[in-house]
Amino acid sequence: MRQRLIYYKRLLEEAELLKEARITEYGMTPVAGLTYDSREAVKDGIFVCKGAAFRPEYLESARNMGCICYISEKKCETAEPMDYLLVKDIRRAMPILSRAFYEKPEDTLFLTGITGTKGKTTTAYYLKGILDAYERAEGRKGTGLLSTIENFDGKQSQRAMMTTPESLEIYRHLRNAADSGLNYFTMEVSSQALKYQRVRGLMYDVSVFLNISEDHISPQEHENFEDYFSAKLSLFRQTRTACVNLDTPYADRILKAARMSEKVVTFGTTKMPDLWAHDIQIINGKLTFRVKCDRFHERFTLAMHGNFNVENALAAIAAAYAYNIPVEYMKKGLANVRVSGRMEQYVSYDGKVLGVVDYAHNRLSFERLFDAVYMEYPGWRIVSVFGCPGGKAYNRRRDLGLIAGLFSHKVYLTADDPGMEKVDKISGEIKHYVEMVGCPCECIEDRGQAIRKAVSECKEKTVILVLGKGNEARQKYGNTVYAYPADARLLCQALRDYEGRRYSWGVSSRGGAAE
Fold this sequence. Notes:
Blueprint: H1 5-14, E1 18-22, E2 33-35, E3 45-48, H2 56-64, E4 69-72, E5 83-87, H3 90-101, E6 110-115, H4 120-137, E7 144-146, E8 150-152, E9 157-159, H5 167-179, E10 184-188, H6 191-195, E11 204-209, H7 225-233, E12 239-245, H8 251-258, E13 263-268, E14 275-283, E15 286-292, E16 297-302, H9 309-322, H10 327-335, E17 344-347, E18 353-358, H11 363-376, E19 381-386, H12 395-407, E20 410-413, H13 423-436, E21 441-443, H14 447-456, E22 462-467, E23 474-477, E24 480-483, H15 487-499
Parallel strand pairs: 2-3, 3-4, 4-5, 6-10, 6-11, 7-10, 11-12, 12-13, 13-14, 18-22, 19-20, 19-22, 20-21
Antiparallel strand pairs: 1-5, 7-8, 8-9, 14-15, 15-16, 17-18, 23-24
Helix pairs in contact: 3-5, 4-9, 4-10, 11-12, 12-13, 14-15
């Protein structure tokens, strides 16, 4: 049921967020829309003025589309007077307004939140695979997902633009899921979403804390590691059952914070967790492991390579355990999950070049990826192609440079969303650390050219790691995002050039060729 404008005024008053209001006869009008994007403004809607990117012309456009009110932290001038609600903190106000407008859709869903420095996306897909297998066996629909790659809510399936969207989008997706009859909804929860209160007010039936390492430290993100870690830990304030990885170095502190939840389930390969993974092997080219708990002791098989994916799969199993999903659906759901841009593998016709596309973009993911490559391909030469984004996570330039330099035979540095910075400046900073540990390094700004050069120079068995962007088909220069071929496409073309003919496909985590 559509609520009137005065209803939203009252909610903000009760939350002690309202500073000033102007409501005329429109106060009795049922509100038909809520948005901060003027392109989505509707008649009788509310327009939210938020963020550094806001421009007065956006509000004017929304007014012309029929919006009757705006919400802002300060008064805005418009060609014709508009009703307004001025608030003390727009970010705190947005989830309150969103939850009210979409009528608390989370109340009808089993909601899972997944956080951590590495592995959120893969874990989300693993859990979705398990829940989908269970729901479909029961004659019901699949399950919802908000991830770095895509968003699916029963009505829409769309490419994601950020890990965790703003609260208005979150609640819209939850409403669609509820209206579509979905029972489960899984979402990645980033530190930024927690810090800037995009998920404030949501209660997660299950939350998963995967791991933590220093990342996202910059003036635009987190001022230091403590700020980053504390933001992550705050997820437990809105959690019923917390699933905690005991293998992370900060497990004791995470467990203390998890006491804010009603129940805690632990998982890992050490320290006697509730769900214990062991006997990790590669059998017939597939990664397998056993899990022991009070309900079962079973072997699981994964379609994706990388021993670090055992942690991600075990996290998904722990969440499914918290939901009392039978183990048969855990095994079935995990067996065939492949995630675009994560450990995608392509092999040249002669078998001498193995290309790997992966989203690894921080210290923890780099460390685990190189460990996995050394374990699965002993004696092979390793070449890395990557860059770092501009304007954020400055510590990555040091960390990734040192790790890649230590474990690669050669490194090619290239563009990865440089934004307002120059690519040669970013690459130069990384190169300093690569060469510090004695590794040859070359800077090639164009990503496609860097990949082609890396492949063309292969003379012996070589693993080429193309890292950082996964399946993203875009590059950000300045404030503009440009279409750009995804890494898999660039790598496949380079392999074709290497062979001089179309090569025979090897194992791909997507089960086929990149277009």
